[in-house]
Amino acid sequence: MKTVLITGTSTGFGNLAVPLYLERGWTVVATMRKVAERGEQIFGKLKERFGDRLHLLELDVTVAEDRENAASYIEEKLEGRLDVLVNNAGYGLMGTLEDQTMEQLRLQFEVNFFGLAGLTRVLLPQLRRSRGRILNISSIGGLVTIPMFGSYNATKFAVEGLTEGLYYELKPFGIQVGLIEPGGFKTDFVSRSLVVAKGAEDPSSPYANLNRPFLKLLKVRAERGDDPVKVAREIVRLSEIPHLPLRTLVGKDARLFAFLRRILPHDLRVGLTAWGFFKLLDRFRD
Ligand SMILES: NC(=O)c1ccc[n+]([C@@H]2O[C@H](COP(=O)([O-])OP(=O)(O)OC[C@H]3O[C@@H](n4cnc5c(N)ncnc54)[C@H](OP(=O)(O)O)[C@@H]3O)[C@@H](O)[C@H]2O)c1
């Protein structure tokens, strides 16, 4: 029986992947923040159905003690068995660099990048033993920059670089490493998990003319997006296929943007992105 540990299972892709793994016979360590307060409400029914195969564990990826505790938990309760680590927890910081505080920028990196790197480090001894695999949830935003999301993009670009590095360095140990690069999916990502730059709602911001229409655009965007279960299914599929590809795009938009990135000369692509972005914003001006 195989074991997976997933971060950020309260909502979204991580949450949807849990029952899919369980139905396929996996043992799942579903981790989240504030598990004591909401774990039962979120996974109570699955716990009744799958009993000992579902483990709920407190894990804020920014807390070193929580990360170390995850490794001890696997050692003590699961006989040290870990086959797959899914680094899924993350959120998006929206807004210009100047409107953000350094604390906002640092926290964005703490969660999306350092949390992922820190957890991977402490679980590597177990993954080495099982010749397991690591699935890092990146984004199409890890390949192309989305205007007004530069800091989020920076974290996902960093995840892409680190994961590619891991791909090489873990090969000799038989550990497979993969990036999942979703496009826009309708999770809590835009509706709840998005953090807006501190100065973005300030009318005196030098970027007020960008922020006002962009915030309106985001509200509309929160209502849209593809079915997130597609990403959850992909996570499970990539855990089970014999050869894990380094990169897997999910969603038509992700595939389209990746295709354009491949075929268009760089200057033309960024020029077109700027043109399209400002045109789109014009639709949301007062
Ligand atoms: N949805 C999309 O369109 C999209 C596209 C590309 C990539 N992604 C990536 O997919 C991943 C999952 O996002 P999602 O779309 O499923 O959004 P989501 O529904 O907002 O889920 C994000 C999860 O991350 C958790 N999280 C945030 N900070 C955390 C921390 N410090 N420690 C542990 N968990 C933390 C959240 O938990 P709390 O409930 O505690 O906040 C939540 O469970 C993210 O890495 C995101 O960047 C999403």
Please provide a written account of the structure.
With 286 residues, the chain is of the alpha/beta class. The chain has one domain (3-282): 3-Layer(aba) Sandwich (Rossmann fold), CATH 3.40.50.720. It is 53% helix and 14% strand. The chain has helices spanning 12-23, 35-50, 64-77, 102-130, 150-170, 188-191, 208-222, 229-240, 252-263, 266-282; strands at 3-6, 27-32, 54-58, 84-87, 93-94, 133-137, 176-182, 195-196, 247-250. The strands form two sheets. A seven-stranded parallel sheet has the order 3-2-1-4-6-7-9, sandwiched between helices. The longest helix has 29 residues, at 102-130. It is globular. The chain starts with a strand and ends with a helix. NADP nicotinamide-adenine-dinucleotide phosphate is lined by residues 7-8, 10-14, 32-33, 60-62, 88-91, 111, 115, 137, 139, 182, 184-185, 187-189, 192-193, 225.
Characteristics of this structure?
binds NADP nicotinamide-adenine-dinucleotide phosphate, 10 helices, 286 residues, alpha/beta, Rossmann fold, 53% helix, single chain, 7-stranded parallel β-sheet
